[in-house]
Design a protein that fits this description.
11 helices
Length: 263
């Protein structure tokens, strides 16, 4: 069988590639499950400190859920459809969102439906100037199911998100940047170098501090400011017990480059 999610190692960076180019990298159940397995591998490997996620081929990052497959789940009834399709997709985007190593999407083509929801969920994203985005679920009579009704309004604001969710219109990478969906738009040939550059700028710093920041931001987004400040304090407290904080402070006072152990 074809490997649905390829993984390559580039030093401390894991490159994950959604690998169904003949299906525009549509997210069938096997792809969702394999992506989760790949994330487990990366989480357990201390030599890997960041992830770049992209799609195979030049046409698509991901066209979203595999309609032919999940239509069969829908035919089996609401309970089966929610279990097999919705919950599986939501687990996947939640895993991406809460992963403690930074994940950067390199959006190399169309990012529709679930592909757009992956882009919403990951920590950072760089888009090719040839990328296109859409929330097209309404065209087949469903709402987004992998978190799109929740994350897009948080990124773009309620009215701008609802326009995209209710029309299903295609929008440009420049519009995705304006909405806060991606961090940067670059020429297509510069996409992977730009994603690696962003990862390398993060890798200069303590991996433990990066994990604490990701956790504080992810958990705090759904909290009140008071609760969020408690989360921030808790994450600092966890950091204060590490070797990396002492190395960072010593290096700053000694005017030298820190050497982090990740401990």
């Amino acid at each position: 069988m074809t490997e649905t999610v390829l993984m390559k190692r580039e030093g401390p960076i894991a490159v994950l590639i959604l690998n169904r180019p003949e299906k525009l990298n549509a997210l069938n159940y096997a792809t969702n499950d394999r992506l989760m397995e790949r994330l487990d591998e990366i989480e357990d490997d201390n030599s890997l400190r960041a992830v770049v996620l992209t799609g195979a081929g030049d046409r698509a990052f991901s066209a979203g859920g595999d309609i032919h497959e999940f239509a069969q789940s829908v035919k089996a009834g609401p309970d089966i459809a929610v279990k097999e399709f919705v919950r599986r997709g939501q687990r996947m985007t939640r895993r991406l969102e809460s992963f403690t190593k930074p994940i950067i999407a390199a959006v190399n083509g169309l990012a529709f439906g679930g592909g757009c929801e992956i882009t919403e969920a990951v920590h950072l994203a760089v888009a090719s100037n040839m990328a296109t985005f859409s929330k097209p679920e309404i065209n087949i009579g469903i709402p987004p199911t992998f978190g799109g009704t929740q994350r897009l309004p948080r990124l773009a604001g309620r009215k701008r998100a609802l326009e995209l969710l209710l029309t299903g219109d295609v929008f440009s990478p420049e519009r995705a940047y304006e909405l806060g969906l991606v961090n940067k738009v670059v020429p297509h040939d510069d996409l992977m170098p730009a994603a690696f550059n962003l990862a390398e700028r993060i890798l200069r710093h303590s991996p433990v501090a990066a994990a604490r920041i990701i956790t504080a931001v992810t958990r705090g987004l759904n909290a009140t400011i008071t609760e969020g400040l408690e989360i921030e304090s808790e994450q600092f407290g966890r950091m204060a017990a590490t070797q990396d904080i002492h190395e960072g402070l010593s290096a700053w006072m000694d005017r030298r480059r820190p050497s982090y152990s990740g401990l």
